[in-house]
Amino acid sequence: MPDVAEPLVKPDISEKDQTKETLDPGYLVICWDDPINTTHYVTHVFQKVFGWNRELAEKRMLEVHNQGKSVLVRERAEKAHFYVAQLQSYSLHASMEKDGA
Amino acid sequence: MIVLESDAVLGKCKVRFESRELDLFREVLLAYPMQKTFLQEPHHKFRNTLEASLRATRAQNTDAARHFRQAGALTIDKDFKESWDLALNAADIEHLLQILNDVRVGLWIQLGRPHPDQDNPPPKTEAAMRAQMLIHFCGEWQYVLIHAFEPSGE
Lengths: 101, 154
Description:
The structure holds two protein chains of two kinds.
Chain A: H1 20-23, E1 27-32, H2 39-50, H3 54-67, E2 69-75, H4 77-89, E3 94-98
Antiparallel strand pairs in A: 1-2, 1-3
Helix pairs in contact in A: 2-3
Chain B: E1 2-7, E2 12-18, H1 19-31, H2 47-70, E3 73-76, E4 82-89, H3 90-110, H4 126-146
């Protein structure tokens, strides 16, 4: 499927909100397993949101399915929040945690 | 739903619904949005911005759902069998996938989040059976849309 404009919504975080904490690349984006989302769908969403190829997206999908969750990326707060919003817009169970918290 | 034609280069495809299937599809579009709360409680510092992002996405998808209800063309074949054809681009497909999954997950939550490995089957009521049917169809349509641009046989 070609890359085209997608229904993405960027988080509304202004420059003044970019404190030391939000710039710290220490937030984990986690996707949690559930019994309702299909494997094809989750793989597709990972490809769209993170730009991964199918092989990597399927690998992460299987981690979610088999281990109950997968840490998808480690990012600064603003970017992690953006990814969580994207995943939740596709109705996936996603959250972010401070690394080491 | 079947894919009538697709062009991966242009990112466009045309799908066809049978007339009975179309009623279910429109029912799903009308039901959107079903989810009003977070699936996973967000990090408290970002709750407001996450809510704003999801509100904006739902507004876009609500517009898309309205468009999908009104778009499309009735076709009648030589045996007088009616169907309904809908042209979609790649962005439409993403909107539609989000709409279908919102309703799919929303219905599942309404049913009490039944889990196949646990002993919590959904109630055996007419409404619950209809919800399960819609969940099934939404999943089928999602599968077709996800693979719309792949060569047939993959």
